[in-house]
Amino acid sequence: MSEVKNNSIAKVWALSLFPVTRVTKLLVRSFLGILGLALIGCSSADNEMAGGNIQAINHTLSGINWLSVNGYRVHGGGGSSCCIILPVKWRPGLKAHIEWEVDPDPFAKLPPLGTKEFKVAMAEAESSFQRHSATVDIPEWQGTDSCGLKVHFLTSNKIKVTTSCWGYGSPNNPIKEPKQMKEPAVCPK
Questions:
Q1: Which parts of the chain register pLDDT below 70?
Q2: Residue ranges in the chain assigned as alpha helix (H)
């Protein structure tokens, strides 16, 4: 009988502790959650990312219909387009995978828009479009001095990229190749 009585007392005693234990667990979990969030806020600046524009500079006589950089697609027409995500600080191994489409005859005469002849001529023109891709290193920039990504299209379907804040043509811009370059008779390997 004393065993049953002791067991009943233990149950009553355990029940009176249960709310305290549950509250204690809740407080500990809340504290750990807040601590975890605080530690996430202390992440390294080396992992911070920022958005920037993608700019295409065509050095060839062909047309660039569109390009994509690491999956961010930009349509032709020149200027800058939003956006690409880059780390705030450069780190070794940064690469840009670039895909693009070339129109070898961007100034071809086409029949009036909306006509059957236009559709036929456009289909013929599109059959001559060429798609290319390349993966290139993104050059180092100092501190946080990155100004988006500029993709330079060169002859022989070569590309160069820069994050320089200096515009094309500036003596401080690292890309010096001229615009309107003619394709060589034989492309270098």
A1: 1-46, 76-79
A2: 2-40, 116-127
The 10 Å Cβ neighbour count of residue 57 is 20
Instruction: Centre a 10 Å sphere on the Cβ of residue 96 and count the other Cβ atoms it contains.
Output: 20
**pLDDT, tens digit, 9 for 90 and up, residues 62-79:** 999 999 999 888 876 666
Q: Give the pairing of strands 49-58 and 149-154.
A: parallel
Amino acid at 5: K
CA–CA gap between residue 178 and residue 143 (Å, rounded): 29
Smallest CA-to-CA distance from 132 within 52, 62, 184 is with 62
Reported pTM: 0.71
The tens digit of pLDDT for each residue in 17-52 reads 555 566 666 565 666 556 555 555 555 556 798 888
Domain ranges of the chain: 1-42, 45-162
R_g of the chain computed on alpha carbons: 31
The count of other CB atoms within 10 Å of the CB of residue 50 is 14
Q: Which residues contact 84 (CB under 8 A, 6 or more apart)?
A: 51, 52, 53, 54, 69, 70, 72, 148, 149
CA dist., res. 38 & res. 35, Å (int): 5
What span, in angstroms and rounded, lies between the C-alpha atoms of 172 and 170?
A: 5
